[in-house]
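Many groups now describe folds with learned vocabularies. In that spirit, our science desk offers one protein's residues alongside their backbone shape tokens.
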Amino acid sequence: MYIKRLLFPLVIAAVAATSSFAQTGIFTNGTLSSDLSFKDELASTSMTLAYDGSHYWSSSGGSASGERLAQYSSAGALVAKFASGLDFRSVFTQGANLYARQFNDATIYQQAAAGTFAPLVTLTDLTEQQVGVVLNGAGNEYIALVEGNVYRWSLAGSPLGSVALVGFGTQPGENEYPQNRGISASGSYWFTYSQGVVSAWDASGQRVGQTSLAGAGTSFDSHFSFSFANGRFWVVDQAGAAWRGYPLVVLAISPASLPAGKIGVAYSSTMTAGGGTAPYTWSASGLPAGLSIGAETGVISGVPSEATTAQVTISVVDSANRDKSTNITLVIDPLDLTVNPSLPNGQVGKTYTASIGVSGGVAPYHLVLDGELPEGLSLDLTTGAITGTPTKTQISTFSVTVSDSTAISLASATKAAVNSVTQSYTITISAQAAPAPVPTLGAWGLVCLSLLLGVVGRGRSSKRTA
């Protein structure tokens, strides 16, 4: 089974304890105070709280009968209570829509009218009875916690795997029931709660921060009720008592991804921080050669000098010495692969030399010939040189495909074809030029030549007689 089935009674003695921790991590303070509270209007076991943009909604469990859902104004005043027929384990929202999961039911319900719910989707293999299901911070997955493992489903209800929370259970009461059956989320973080302390976890299951909630409840109801809604982390003191909301602001880095760059082309992209106290100090490791990050500005800039897919760690520290790091992939593409568009013509019997000139990409290159070169010529598939002596007149049309050594993983999505280009060529071989003709004498030329020779002959005879 996807989640092992466990049965627990709904009445367990509350554990009163205090918790200590070493760091605040991503949180803006080591101890947070409540800035909004209002009375829980449901008398049974408190479950979670949600906010739909204009109203809060609280839920309770223990039975499907009676009033199990309450609606409040944004200030916490009671609007109405409903007998919805669900034994709630969680309520949560996306925009104005309210959703719910009930005891021992793999169905996610959506509120169709105030207090009335209809089935929306079934989470495959969800069999753990008591777990509260919510949406992740991005609103694109359902998540649930069981004993330190975060289980994930698509919005269509298909399992997406699980993530083990590293070190879960090392804090007081953390892996006890019911706190090990609840989870909340905001942004890229998951939150758990035990004995007055909130822990934040990243998507890899690492604990990235803790903060104490001043005066927060530690009862059985408290550990079932913890929720994130309207920018606050909510905990009920106990059923029928006070809901307390704590502004849960965390130090965050954006954007989550970086645009691809290109060798030899100036690059610039700005990282920003939120949730902390300015000024911020930035650092980075693993940046591609030629790039650096401005310590005060968070601007990644420079001229990349090599094609790569770099795993970059971006870190920021705020003025209160709170720190946050994130890992981002940065792709540097090679220059576009290009070849010369034409080749010179040749002549029969005359040595021919030309080349498929290649630029860009990443050497070495590999060439593939499609078609026939003129007779007497050959193509070097490594260097691109075309050499030889043409043997007959002809017009030859062919194509050459050039591929470079760029691995697909080195090219960004927009440059998936950067490592291959095909070019068509035509070479015309003409006949060998005829030798220049020897001049000939016409009839008048012969007469003139004869007269000239006669004159020369008489001259020589006169000299000998004398």
The chain is about 5% helix and 40% strand.
